[in-house]
Amino acid sequence: MSDKELEGKLDQAKGKVKEEVGKMTNDSSTEAEGKADQAEGKIKEGLGEAKRKIKNTFDGK
């Protein structure tokens, strides 16, 4: 797993916590921020995975 993939997973986890806090406190802004953080994390994870796969292909792994 690449650093970018790990960073993406951490962003997703933080976003999920933020989303749940927003739900519990009826703060729609915080809930929306959490969902946005999760989406950003998924993108980072996907880019990291693609980069790793490309590198592995050219490295012959």
Number-wise, the strands total 0
Shape: rod-shaped
Mean pLDDT: 95
The span between the termini is 14 Å
**Which regions have little confidence, pLDDT < 50, spanning 5+ residues?**
none
Radius of gyration: 15 Å
SS content category: mainly alpha
H/E element order: HH
- By DSSP (H or I, 4+ residues per run), the number of helices equals 2
**Percent helix range:** over 70%
Q: Largest sheet at a glance?
A: none
Number of domains: 1
Strand-residue proportion: under 5%
Structure described in brief:
89% of the residues lie in helices and 0% in strands. With 61 residues, it is mostly helical.
Q: What can you tell me about this protein's structure?
A:
Residues 1-61 are annotated as: Disordered. It comes from Nonlabens dokdonensis (strain DSM 17205 / KCTC 12402 / DSW-6) (Donghaeana dokdonensis). This is CsbD-like domain-containing protein. InterPro entries: CsbD, UPF0337_stress_rsp, YjbJ_sf. Residues 1-22, 32-61 have a biased composition (Basic and acidic residues). Helix content is 89%, strand content 0%. The chain has one domain (3-60). The mean pLDDT is 95. It contains two helices and no strands. The two termini are 14 Å apart. The longest helix has 32 residues, at 28-59. By secondary structure, the protein is mostly helical. The radius of gyration is 15 Å and the shape is rod-shaped.
